Amino acid sequence: MAPSGLKAVVGEKILNGVIKSVKKDGEWKVLIVDHMGMRILSSCCKMSDILAMGVTIVEDIDKRRERICSLEAIYFIAPVQKSVRALINDFKDVGFTYKAAHIFFTEPCPDELFTEIGRSRVAKVAKTLKEVNIAFLPCESQVFSLDDPTSLYSFYGLKPNENKDKMIENLAEQIATLCDTLKEYPAVRYRKGPEENARLAEEVYRRLTAHKADNPSMGEGPDKARTQLLIVDRGFDPISPILHELTFQAMAYDLLDIKQDIYMYQTTGIGDSKEREVLLNEDDDLWVQLRHMHIADVTKKVTELLRTFCESKRMCTDNANIKDLSQMLKKMPQYQKDLSMYSTHLHLAEACMKKFKASLDKLCEVEQDLVMGATPDGEPLKDAMKSIVPVLLNNELEAYDKIRIILLYIFHKKKGITEENLAKLIQHANIQAESNIITNLENLGCNIIAGGRNAGKTLPERKERTGSTYDLSRWTPIIKDVMENVIDDKLDKQQWPFIADPAPINTTQTAVSARFGHWHKNKSPPEYRTGPRLIIFVIGGVAHSEMRSAYEVTRATDGKWEVLIGSSHVLTPTSFLNDLKTLDQVPNPDC
Amino acid sequence: MLERLQTISEDHEDEELEFNGPEYDADKVTLSQQAVIFENSSAIDEVLKEAQFIRKEISLLQLEVERMCMQNERFGTSVRRLTLLKKDCDSIAKGVQQRAEALYVRLQDLGKMSSQLEEKEGPNSAVSRIARTQYDTLTHAFRAVMSDYSKAEEKQKNTCRTRIQRQASIMGTDITDEQLDVLVDKGGEGWAELSQSLQPQAARTCRMAFCEIKSRHEQLVELEARLKEVHELFLQMAVLVEEQGSLLNNIEVHMHRTQEHVDQINDHIKKAVQYKKKNPFLQCCPCLPLVSMLTPLYGSK
């Protein structure tokens, strides 16, 4: 199944709008990217895609490169000084590095840099020069990232980014390119409270208006006037990024060491046992099916699917399990792709369960009681301290797990806890070295120390949710309530003000014929999705459970709305705690 | 935007001329770029030509596989002229197989070329990386086509099987999956067994069904034989995939494996060209070709 949503939109825009647009039959080209260009490209295109469009080699603009003068070059770079200088350098000396240049910037190029290029010899060899307006990464079909893991520090650190204005402008521009790519002109809203939310929202509005002037088709279409863009801060829901989640994707990224979406495991294939590296992304159909499922259902589902697969291919095995897979592979190597897929997910699920059973089952019970304020039977939690002390005293648990429990206890207390109580807890847990993680959360506006600087701030009231869930998965991210409220038009305008009054919504429905006028629906480009979108940007990082909520809410509207969520980067509990740790440190002057 | 850039460029040139006056302008001299730079282009051209040929062959193979699918559809759903249709199916499928095998050999040759280039020019040189990338993506594309072929043959197999079982049950005999397996494995003998078990029952009235079963049984036997032949090819490809690793197609991983270009030889030639430019003899006496020829020789040591 081809990727849909954001990945498809951006992939199509790059493959057709950039690479194919300069393709000439019989001629190959060199593609040169800087860091941002490479990240964007890699997130939605594969080597085979770009080779099919006439690119024969991909180079890094920041590395010294060999001259290839018989080929023309496509530059896909951000309009920043470093990349522009490198571009100019390629054509500075007498011998040009490439035959000609086709330049594509990820966002609008500032005037000074543009003039610099104009005055250089690049102007003579440039055959194309465009701004494509893609300055974000499409991580998933409904999740985007701005690829900046330092963002939490930039906003909430001890010495927050001195160029905070410039940083907010850059962020706003990136978010505006997202809307531009999707042809949306949303009404911008922000959570009232932290001043960064309002500033970012204003700047986004300014940039959006500038983009709309160049691209009037943004926001046009039936129902598009209802599209909204929400700016929210991480401190709004500090629970979701630290809670132990038991859905496949969230759990795997939390418990296992998965970097850059690459999962490594040991397995036997046709050859001997060796380490396999697998990319967990939407090209893997099975991953898309399983990633939001509860772990208890995952192993069941994969085994069932594998059995059906084996039966349909008439491979006689009694139990289709991991060990038999290499046998099957030898007998029917043409199914290598499918068999590897099953193997990967069986291993992944097994690895998660192993870690869970080792130490986490008791922990998750306590966590869920704390965040729900009640036991699975509905009994309100009476003595929270009693339930967390055995966890804190357990020497087999890691420091970060203990910190997570302490934080969840503090949030359960709603008004924060006293300094002495905090000190006691830290002592029980023996985590003095990491204790600043807890207090640093105050920088995000969370109420940690009772009567401290965030006194009076509380987490929002929650919706009542009925419906059966697993006992260890009762928590829903707070953002899900917000998503549902926006869609029902019930989101409080005082707490979530608009930057500009939204356009009046045309409530009269134009008559739509059932027979005629739908011919275009099969052929419309991927970004032209009728129906409004809700785009949410979280300052400081987005958690996997919140990403999952976007899909769940979208599905619940039966496709009428599409919810997109994103941030500067995607969090895992460990990375979030690591980020928090640095908040009270002075930035390294050398960086 | 390009026009804007070019306007700036022209304005800038006019400015420069005003300030500097007519001088020896590096831009205006078309130097002997040929001698200095086109060292890698013929090797690259060769690789690209071969890659383009293989790429075209793969798309032709894809078309043949699609043709095979369509023909299979017709064979699968029709009730008349089965022998004729079967012959067409078989010939297309055999054609696909032969083409695939020839293409695989050519691909392997490209792989060898790529390894040789890596040894000769180093794995980091542009031409080796171009060759390696082309080889990797072409293998990927070839595998995809072969996967489609395999799926088509599987589908055909299943269609034949269900048809046989259905026709047999119409004639009054039920054949289970396992029995059918055995009958197919036995080939011609299997047909003899099958026809005997069917014969006594209303063979005359169900002549058509009888003929169909015969035809499809033959088809199955041939299919199985073809699949056995191509099994070795699939096995080799699977081994290759395991060795290459599944991250091959990922752009970021691909780029991290590339290192900085160590540009020793070219640096010297650059310097030589600069010396030539600054050569006082050239500037006042352009008719001294001898001197200009000697300088690069000294520079490249």
Which protein chains are joined by the largest interface, and how many residues does each one contribute? A-B, 65 and 69 residues
Strand percent estimate of chain A: 5-15%
Question: Which value, in Å, is the CA radius of gyration of chain B?
Answer: 33 Å
What is the CA-atom radius of gyration of chain A, in angstroms? 26 Å
Number of strands of chain B: 0
InterPro entries (chain B): SNARE, Syntaxin, Syntaxin/epimorphin_CS, Syntaxin_N, T_SNARE_dom
Keywords (chain B): Coiled coil
Family (chain B): Belongs to the syntaxin family.
Domain T-SNARE coiled-coil homology (chain B): 210-272
Describe, in plain words, how this protein is organized in 3D.
The complex is a heterodimer of chains A (591) and B (301). Chain A has 21 helices and 13 strands. By secondary structure, chain A is an alpha/beta fold. The longest helix of chain A has 37 residues, at 336-372. Chain A starts with 5 loop residues before the first helix and ends in a 10-residue tail after the last helix. Chain B has 301 residues and is mainly alpha-helical. Chain B has a domain at 42-238: Up-down Bundle (Methane Monooxygenase Hydroxylase, Chain G, domain 1), CATH 1.20.58.70. Chain B is 80% helix and 0% strand. In chain B, α7 runs antiparallel to α8 (207-244). Chain B is elongated. Chains A and B meet through α2, α3, β2, α5 and β5 of A and α1, α2, α3, α5 and α8 of B.
Distinctive features:
heterodimer, A: 591 residues, alpha/beta, 5-stranded parallel beta sheet, B: 301 residues, mainly alpha, Methane Monooxygenase Hydroxylase, Chain G, domain 1, 0% strand, disordered C terminus
Write the layout of secondary structure elements.
The complex is a heterodimer of chains A (591) and B (301).
Chain A: H1 6-19, E1 29-33, H2 35-44, H3 47-52, E2 55-60, E3 72-77, H4 81-90, E4 101-105, H5 111-118, H6 122-125, E5 126-131, E6 137-140, E7 143-145, H7 151-156, H8 164-181, E8 187-190, H9 195-214, E9 228-233, H10 248-255, E10 262-268, E11 273-279, H11 285-290, H12 295-312, H13 322-331, H14 336-372, H15 384-393, H16 399-412, H17 419-429, H18 436-440, H19 478-487, E12 533-539, H20 544-556, E13 562-567, H21 573-581
Parallel strand pairs in A: 1-2, 1-3, 3-4, 4-5, 7-13, 8-9, 9-12, 12-13
Antiparallel strand pairs in A: 6-7, 10-11
Helix pairs in contact in A: 8-9, 10-14, 12-14, 13-14, 14-16, 15-16, 15-17, 19-20
Chain B: H1 2-20, H2 33-37, H3 41-77, H4 82-121, H5 126-170, H6 177-185, H7 188-198, H8 207-244, H9 251-256, H10 264-278, H11 280-284, H12 289-299
Helix pairs in contact in B: 3-4, 3-5, 4-5, 4-8, 5-8, 6-7, 7-8, 10-12
Keywords (chain B): Coiled coil
GO molecular function (chain B): SNAP receptor activity; SNARE binding
Domain T-SNARE coiled-coil homology (chain B): 210-272
